Amino acid sequence: MYGKYKHSLDAKGRLFVPAKLREELGSAFYIAKALDGCIKLYTEAGWQALLEQCKALPSSKTRALRVFFANVVKCEPDKQGRFLLPETMREYAGIEQEAMFIGQADSAEIWSVQRYELEEEKYLTPEALAAVMEDLGL
């Protein structure tokens, strides 16, 4: 998944999944609170892979996952491609009216537009891009 797509919440708190991401996310996907104050979207296959990783952890580590799993939501978009973005998720990510979907290779993220623009300002510089390209061997 790649690209960035801006969409507005409707009056009921629903968000439209961009067409380019909808096909890759499938008929159902999972959302979870993520680092940097955004929301992570997992495909069914990505979610299953994460669950397998969690099963391999020692019990001392799995306790910390309680809060993570308690805040995961399975989403099934309607025929128009909309899904309800729970209020707790909107509050966590600082999303009031507009949201930005960001493709992240095998997953996606949802950001507050303002928060993402600040993030992009930090990392969309010639120096930062050069560092990323170097890390990728390009």
Q: Biggest sheet, open or closed, and with what strands and sense?
A: 6 strands, antiparallel
Question: Mean pLDDT, nearest integer?
Answer: 89
The helicity comes to 40-55%
Class based on secondary structure composition and strand pairing: alpha+beta
Main sheet: strand order = 1-7-8-4-3-5
Per the CATH scheme, the topology name is Chemotaxis protein chec
Gross geometry: globular
Number of domains: 1
Give start-end ranges of low-pLDDT stretches: none
End-to-end distance: 20 Å
Beta fraction: 25-35%
Account of the 3D structure:
The strands form 2 sheets. A 6-stranded antiparallel beta sheet has the order 1-7-8-4-3-5. A two-stranded antiparallel ribbon has the order 2-6. β7 (98-104) and β8 (107-112) form a beta hairpin. It has 138 residues and is an alpha+beta fold. The mean pLDDT is 89. The protein has a single domain, classed as Chemotaxis protein chec (3-Layer(aba) Sandwich), CATH 3.40.1550. It is 41% helix and 26% strand.
Set out the fold topology:
Layout (H helix, E strand, L loop, with lengths): L3 E5 L5 E3 L2 H7 L3 E5 L5 E4 L1 H12 L3 H4 L2 H6 L2 E3 L6 E3 L2 H7 L4 E7 L2 E6 H11 L2 H10 L3
Descriptors:
138 residues, 41% helix, alpha+beta, six-stranded antiparallel beta sheet
